Amino acid sequence: MPLRIESICRTHRALLSDFQNPHASLVEYLKRYAVRHAEKDLLARTYLAIDDDAGTPQLAGYFSLATVSVERGAAARLPALDRLPRFPIPGVLLARLAVDSRVHGQGLGRYLFEEALGLTLQLAQTGPVAFRLLVTDALDTAAVRFYEHFGLAPLEENFPCRMALDLFPLLVGVAQPR
Ligand SMILES: CC(C)(COP(=O)(O)OP(=O)(O)OC[C@H]1O[C@@H](n2cnc3c(N)ncnc32)[C@H](O)[C@@H]1OP(=O)(O)O)[C@@H](O)C(=O)NCCC(=O)NCCS
């Protein structure tokens, strides 16, 4: 399925109306808040995966990115982070990720996660800010298992379950900006 990723804006509204996912909160966010958060409130930026295969564009999935700060004590379960000085640890928050129910199990979740991670690493490598983590809040045990696939580890036990990926091993050796 050939997909393109686009940063959400008001011209996408018609594309959002048909999106289906078992998590009503992820559908509601997309339809009610995603454009507003990106364009007006500046709380999160949503990226759409659009499928042009059928002639008319279809929304296959989306993810949203924002920033986050993790209390140093909350990172104690991850040994590499437990050795850091006692300051909050900054990161990018993968605030939401969802695939349309009609195309689950076809690799789109992996595609969206890799796009989100790619944007995050690009910002860490070439942006003017430093941060250490990719963080997400998994909604249920299935989501925890999905994110564990990609190396994220739970920081909490309850749901939503905060999970994190230490970006250091992915960034080490890459030239830092001057
Ligand atoms: C979780 C979700 C995004 C997965 O999307 P998907 O397109 O069906 O997933 P993919 O087909 O890309 O699978 C990617 C990998 O994760 C694995 N995976 C997918 N769902 C999984 C689950 N529930 N448990 C364990 N592994 C899972 C797949 O086996 C696959 O592994 P592989 O690449 O090694 O074969 C999708 O089911 C969804 O939208 N769920 C509801 C929303 C949600 O929970 N979002 C995440 C938390 S906010």
TrEMBL record:
Name-wise, this protein is: N-acetyltransferase domain-containing protein
Any one Gene Ontology molecular-function term assigned to this protein's record: acyltransferase activity, transferring groups other than amino-acyl groups
Write down the chemical reaction(s) this protein catalyses. glycyl-tRNA(Gly) + acetyl-CoA = N-acetylglycyl-tRNA(Gly) + CoA + H(+)
Give the species: Candidatus Contendobacter odensis Run_B_J11
The family database entries (Pfam families) matched by this protein are listed as: Acetyltransf_7
Question: Keywords, A to Z?
Answer: Acyltransferase, Repressor, Toxin-antitoxin system, Transferase
Hey, which family's this protein in?
A: Belongs to the acetyltransferase family. GNAT subfamily.
Location of the N-acetyltransferase domain = 93-151
**Which superkingdom is the protein from?**
Bacteria
Is Acyltransferase included in the keywords of this UniProt record? yes
